[in-house]
Structure formats: C-alpha cells, structure tokens
Amino acid sequence: MNRMKKYGAAMLFAGMLSSAFAQVGQQGSNDQLEKYRPSYHFTPKQGWMNDPNGMVYLNGNYHLFFQHNPEKSVWGPMHWGHAISKDLIHWDEQKIALYPDSLGTIFSGSSVIDKNNTAGFGKGAMVAIFTHHNHQEEERKTGLHQNQSLAYSLDQGATWTKYKGNPVLPNPGIWDFRDPKVMWFEKSKSWIMTLATKDCITFYSSKNLKEWKKESEFGKEVGAHGGVWECPDLIPMKYKGETKWVLLVSINPGGPNGGSVTQYFVGDFDGHQFQPADTSIKWLDWGPDNYAGVTWSNLGGRQLMIGWMSNWQYANVVPTTRWRSSSTIPRDLALQKVDQKYYVSSSAAPELAKAFRPVKKYRANQSKELSIQEQLPQAFRLDINKLKQQNFKVILSNTIGNELVVGYDKDQKAYYIDRSKSGEIAFNADFPKTSTAKRLSNNESLSLSLYIDVSSVELFADGGLTAMTGLFFPQEPMTRLRIVGEDNLIFQDIDIAAFKDK
Ligand code: FRU
Question: Is the distance from the beta carbon of residue 230 to the nearest atom of ligand 1 less than 6 Å?
C-alpha cells in the first residue's frame, strides 16, 4: 500500500472517528475502558501507540520510547512517548520525550549511548536518531518528506534537545526513507545506520552521527516484497562461537497471514555490505500481531527485542478506546540451525519468570482432555513440555461461548491461532481469519510456552523456533482452559503459572 494512502487514511480516521471514540471513552465506565488492558505488557495510559523506538539500556533502566499520539487513540501526529522498566515486567510511563516541530512529526528510530562523545553533545549522551516526517511536504508530493534527525539527552532520557543542524541525513528523493537503526561498529570505529528505503535497506556510516556516507543497498531482489520495507535492525549474533549478522526487516503488508510482519536474513556484515547466507524467506513471528520489533542498544551481546503487538490491517479500530495498542513481551533472540539453515528463535526474557507463581501442574496423564474449570487467571503462562506429536488444541473460553484456539496440525506440520469465535471480531474482516505457522523443528515431541494476558496470546514453540502472536477481545473474561488431543495426551509435564500482580 502506498505510504501516503496509509498515513492519509489514518489521519482521516483521526479526524472522523477519534473524537467520537474519545467521547465514548469519556462516557464509558472505568471497567469498560480498561477491559482489555493487559497486566504485564506495556500500554500507554491513554492515546495511541505503534512501533517501539529508541530502546536503550542505561544504569539499570530499560528505556522504551514509542510512536505515540497522546491526544487520540488513533494514529495521528507522532511523538516519542517514553517508558522505563527496571525488571522488564513493570513499566513506568514518563513525560513525552520528543514532540513534533517545524521539520515534522517524529517517526520511528533508535537511540545510542555516545560513550566517546563522537557527536560532541557530551560524553555518554543518549542520542536519538529518528525520522522527521513532514506532512506538508508529503502533500506537495516532492517525495522529500522523510529525513533523518538527531536529538540528545544529557540526563538519562529525562529531557531532550533537538540538534540544531537537523536533518543530518536529508532525503535524496526516496518516498519511503525512514526508521534509522544505529549501532557502533567497533572494527571500523564508525556508527552504522540501517535505514528502510522503500523496497530495500540502505546502510550508511558516520564517525560523528552528524555526517553520513552511503555504504551499500541490500534486498531489492531478495526476501519478501508484499509491501514497503520498514523498521530494520542489524544485529550481531553468535552461533557456536561464530559471529553472524541478522537483518530484521518489517514489511507491510505481505505477512504470511496477511498484513504486517517481520522477516529476517542471516548472513555477514563487514561494515560496508550485508551478504545473506541464504535467501529463503524467514518470519520472526508468524502471527498477525508482532510488528516493527527491534532490539535494545547498549546491552552488551544480549539481543533483547520488543515488538508492537498489532497489525496495520486493523490497529486503528481494535475495540479499546482510552488507549490503543500494547507492546509484545520482551524477547531474547538466538541463532539456531535446522537442516543447514540459520534461524532466529524468540523466547520470553528470563526476567519475566519472576512475575509468575505456579498454580497447577500435571504430569503424564492418559486422557484426551485436560480441563481447568475453576477461576482461571486472566494473565498467565502455560507450559507444555514434551507432548507426543498429535493434533491438539488449547482452548480458552468463557461462559458466553467465546473461544480462542491455539493448536497444532500434525499433517500440515503447523501451529495455528483461531480467533474466529474469540469475542469481538466484527471490527475488521481480516481479524477473524485463522493464522498458521510452519513448525521448523524436527524434534520428536512438542514443547510450547503460551503467554496469555487478558487480550493477547504469544506462542513460543520448540524453544521459540516458531513464534506466533495474536490479539483477541473476549466479551467476558476467559475463565476456562481445556487442552484437547485427538488421542490420549502423553507428555512430560504441563504447568500453569499465574501472573502475580497487576
Ligand atoms: C511502521 C511505521 C514506520 C513509521 C511509523 C510511523 O509501523 O509505518 O515505518 O516510522 O510507523 O508511525
């Protein structure tokens, strides 16, 4: 879809719908307004959120900035919202970090800690590199409306100053020219910017964050091209002691289950060029609701990612009103090899384990169904360890017949999420469609972890080799859980752990 159309349409939503939504919001009861708010996922207190931005770790704080329209719960003039967590479980929303200015609104980007004061803003300055999006320029159709700019903070992200020389990387005439992700490349003692440029990625280098030199392009001929390329990330990852480079690229639309999705390539990067080890199409998360995910900077070798838990197909109309959109849980990325090919697996950040307390444990049971009927927590984790392969379903339901199904189809060798009867689904025609995910692992038995949090499910199967994320909006809380096999369920153990606090 054409960018202008997308943003134009969203702006129209903002104009037409949001005041009505805001009013509905004011009138609804607090319970109604908070109905779908998750417990251990970050959501803004009010207003709209999309991509995570500028994530950086500093002095015990995980900083999360995000695309934010504070006034309305639909996409609109973008700011960088800000939240901080010390434990990756609880998030404290901060003052807005970056406001729109005469150069435009503040689109996605990244942050780095400038330890050697290369930019001259101060030693250890937190520097944000983001896209200025100029809506007037966009209307003039010059194609020059997106430019890369800097802002810096000398007080650990509390207050920000925009650089006077903005933009630092002016648009050369590319309509989609955005979402800079910057990292330090030690070998050449340079900053490398990975930028989404329409249908490919362009790499730039700089010694001071202010002057950028084009190095190379990647991807015009490879990968998935169902939609525009956005929100890239280039990350070094180790496999058996060897360093490989992973390039994440979000595309919209073009996902295996429709709409927004993140693909990735594994290969080598020499400071100038990225060379993929193979060019097959790989999805970081097959579900419909994990987009624009990128990793934290300044975390040593750890590759910790968070995504936006929605999809441009319906993000503006999901049935929440006071706030719209949540982040995924923070996930650790790791490199694995299956049939001679590299894959990136995702798993819940281990810090999250502290947030759950065991409530139920089953061992090697010999029936076709396990049923938990007593009051089920709304935020919990379900671990299924070493289940003998067969068709099976995890069914979450309530007293009025809403059902969310997460299952495995042995013939198709695929996991799936079926939300066709999950509650509120009519707000968008694509939402009720079942999404499927290829099982990549060749392990004999199935092991999965499901993170459920009021209105979302995140599935990590086979050590996270296959991940799927999906939203659902039950009309009443889901109070019942069943695990139903085609045959007797033979497994090592099944554990349910409840989220401990709100
Ligand atoms: C991805 C995206 C980015 C852009 C931002 C605007 O979801 O379209 O490419 O910077 O959202 O909010």
Answer: yes
Pocket test for ligand 1, best of 72, 78, 107, 132 (most atoms within 8 A of CB): 107
Interval 174-219: pLDDT, tens = 999 999 999 999 999 999 999 999 999 999 999 999 999 999 999 9
For residue 27, the model assigns a pLDDT of 53
Ranges of each domain in the chain: 5-38+45-314+324-347, 352-499
- Ligand 1, closest atom to CA 107? 10
CATH topology of domain 5-38+45-314+324-347: Tachylectin-2; Chain A (2.115.10)
Residue 2 has pLDDT above 70, yes or no: no
CA distance 425 to 402: 11
Number of H helices, E strands in the chain: 4, 33
- Are the CB atoms for 194 and 201 separated by under 8 Å? yes
SS3 content of the chain, % helix, strand, coil (to 5): 10, 45, 45
Residue 261 near ligand 1, beta carbon < 6 Å? no
Mean pLDDT score of the chain: 94
**10 — pLDDT class (breaks 50, 70, 90):** very low
Structural class in CATH, domain 352-499: mainly beta
Residue the block writes with tokens 């296959």: 466
Distance 230 CA to ligand 1 centre (A): 7
Rounded CA gap, 32 and 437, in Å?
33
Q: Which atom of ligand 1 is nearest to the CA of 109?
A: 10
Q: Do the bridges between strand 392-397 and strand 480-485 make them parallel or antiparallel, or are there none, so unpaired? A: antiparallel
Q: Are 220 and 228 in contact (CB under 8 A)?
A: no
The answer, yes or no, to whether any atom of ligand 1 lies below 6 A from the CB of 131, is yes
Cβ of 292 closer than 6 Å to ligand 1, yes or no, is yes
462 among known catalytic residues: no
Q: Compute, in angstroms, the gap from residue 108 CA to the centroid of ligand 1.
A: 6
* pTM for this entry: 0.95
Structure token digits, residue 219:
């991807």
Would you state the torsion angle of the CA atoms of residues 48, 54, 58, 60, taken in this order, to the nearest 10 degrees? 40
194 within ligand 1 shell (Cβ under 6 A): no
Q: Is pLDDT at 12 greater than 70 in this prediction?
A: no
Residue with tokens 């080799």: 465
DSSP line for 69-101:
ESS-SSS-S-EEEEEEESSSS--EE-S--B--B
Sign for the CA dihedral angle at 487, 488, 492, 495 comes to positive
Residue count of the chain, please give it.
502
Q: What is the pLDDT of residues 414-466, one digit of tens each?
A: 999 999 999 999 999 999 999 999 999 999 999 999 999 999 999 999 999 99
